[in-house]
Amino acid sequence: MATSWVGSVVSINCGPTLGVYQGEVSSVDQTSQTISLRQPYHNGLRCPVPEVTVSAMDIKELKFVDIQNAVTKSTSGQRTATEVTSLHTGRQNNRSSLPSFPSSSSNPGTAPITILRRVPTGSSNSRGGTQATHRKNSVRNGGAGWTMRPKDDECFGDGTDEDLDTDFDFEGNLALFDKAAVFSQIEEKNGNSNRAHHHNSHAEQKHPSYRHDENILESKPVTYRQITVPQHRGKEYCTDSGLVVPSIPYELHKHLLAAAERWGLSLERRLEMIGVCSTQMALTLLGGPNRLTPKNIHQRPTVALLCGPHVQGAQGISCGRHLANHDVEVILFLPNFVKMHESVISEINLFSRTSGKQVSNVRDLPMSPIDLVINCLDCHENLLLREQPWYRSAADWANQNRAPVLSIDPPVSEQDQTVEAKWTLSLGLPLPLVERESRLYLCDIGIPNLVFQEVGISYHSPFGCKFVVPLHPV
C-alpha cells in the first residue's frame, strides 16, 4: 500500500514553524511513520540536500499532486477516483490548477485535498519553470468555496531558483546598446530642428538682445570723439564709456583758465571747485562709507598734505580743509615763506579754523605710515623749486613713507617725478604728461562750453553724472 505513493508529487504543510515541503515521494516507512521526499522544496525554494524525511507527527496537512493519475488521495486510506474534465485558465500566469474537491472521508478532522497540475514546458503561459504550486480554498460570504491565491504564493510561489545560479551578463547586455545608432538619431533630430529654426529665422527677423545699460529705442549713432582741440598733436585718453578726451598743452590750458576768469569763474571759485572734487576722490580712496562711519570714529584716517607757496599749493590746502570737515585727521606741511600767493594766505586762514594740524618742518611729520599723501609741491611756472632744501626733504619723506600718493595738477616735465604718485588728478582737460605707472583722473572745474569755444575747443562734457572720471591712454 505504501509503495503505491512512491513517485507522487506531494505538498506537506508542517505548520508555521517547519513550513511547507514539496517534492516527489521516494519512500514511505510505516514502521517509523515517516515519508521521504526527493528533490525537495522548502517554502518554495529548493533545498540544498537531495532528500528530506518528514515525520507523521509534524504533518498538519498533506496534499497530493499526481500528474500521471490525476486522482485525489486522502490520509484516512479512502480513495476516490475523479476524472479531470477541465483545466482552470482564467488568469494568465505561470501555473494552472484544477478545482478543489472536499474529501469523501467520514472523518471530520480530515483536511480537504486539492489536485494541482503543472503546465507543460514550452506553454505560452509558462515561464519555463516546472514547480507545482497549490491554491487554497476560501469561503466567501459563507457561500461556495472559491480558489484564491495567497499573497505569499503570488510573490514566492514561482520557480525563480533556476536563474539564481547565473550571473547577470553586463557586457553582453551593454553590447546590445548601439551607441552609434542612438547618437545618429539624436543628431538627425537636432539637425532637423536646426534647419527648421534656420528656415523660420528667414521668415521672421530675430530681435537683438540688449544689456541693462543699453537703450532699446532707436537713436542716432554714438559719436565718441566729442572734444576737438586746435592743432592737436598731443596724447589722447578715453573714459570708461569710450569717449575720447584729447590732451592740451599748458599754454592753451592757461588761456582757457584766463577766459573763464573773464566770464566770472574767479580763482577763488575755481579753488573751491577743485577742493571739493579732490576731496571726493580722496574720500573714495580712503574707503568711503566703509571707513568713514560713526562706529569707526576711533580709527580716523590720516592724510598728509605737502603744499608749496603757489596756486597749486592753495588747491591742496582747500582739499585739506574739506577733508578735515569730514572727520579726517589732516596734517598740512607748508614751510614758512616770506612771500606767498594771496590765495595761499586766504586758504590758510580758512584751514586754521578746522581741526587740521599745520607744520613747517619735515621732522614734525609722522614717521609711521599713514593712509594717504597728497602732493601739491610742484608749480607750472617755476620748476626750479625742486632744487630747494625744503622741497627735497618733503619729497624724501613722501618716498620713505609707505602711504600711497595722490598728485593734484602736476606740471608737464620731461624729468622724473620727485614723488612717485599712484594717482594723478588733472583739471578740465588733461595735460600731455609723461606716461608713468600713475593712474590719471580728470575733474570738472565748472568751465562752460562757450568758454571752451572761445579758445577754439569744441567741447562736450565727458563726465556724465560724475565730477571725477578715470582716463585711460588710447
Describe the structure.
The chain is of the alpha/beta class and 474 residues long. It is 24% helix and 20% strand. It has helices at 15-18, 151-156, 170-175, 179-203, 250-262, 267-285, 311-325, 342-351, 389-400, 449-454, and strands at 9-13, 20-29, 34-42, 45-46, 51-55, 61-65, 72-73, 79-80, 96-97, 116-117, 136-139, 145-148, 236-238, 244-246, 302-307, 329-333, 357-359, 372-376, 405-408, 423-427, 439-443, 468-473. The strands form five sheets. Strands 14-13-22-21-20-19-18-15-16-17 form a ten-stranded mixed β-sheet. The longest helix is centred in the middle third of the chain and has 25 residues, at 179-203. Residues 73-151, 191-212 are annotated as: Disordered. Belongs to the EDC3 family.
Topology of this structure?
Elements: E1 9-13, H1 15-18, E2 20-29, E3 34-42, E4 45-46, E5 51-55, E6 61-65, E7 72-73, E8 79-80, E9 96-97, E10 116-117, E11 136-139, E12 145-148, H2 151-156, H3 170-175, H4 179-203, E13 236-238, E14 244-246, H5 250-262, H6 267-285, E15 302-307, H7 311-325, E16 329-333, H8 342-351, E17 357-359, E18 372-376, H9 389-400, E19 405-408, E20 423-427, E21 439-443, H10 449-454, E22 468-473
Parallel strand pairs: 15-16, 15-18, 16-17, 18-19, 19-20, 20-21
Antiparallel strand pairs: 1-2, 1-6, 2-3, 3-4, 3-5, 7-8, 9-10, 11-12, 13-14, 13-22, 21-22
Helix pairs in contact: 6-7, 7-8
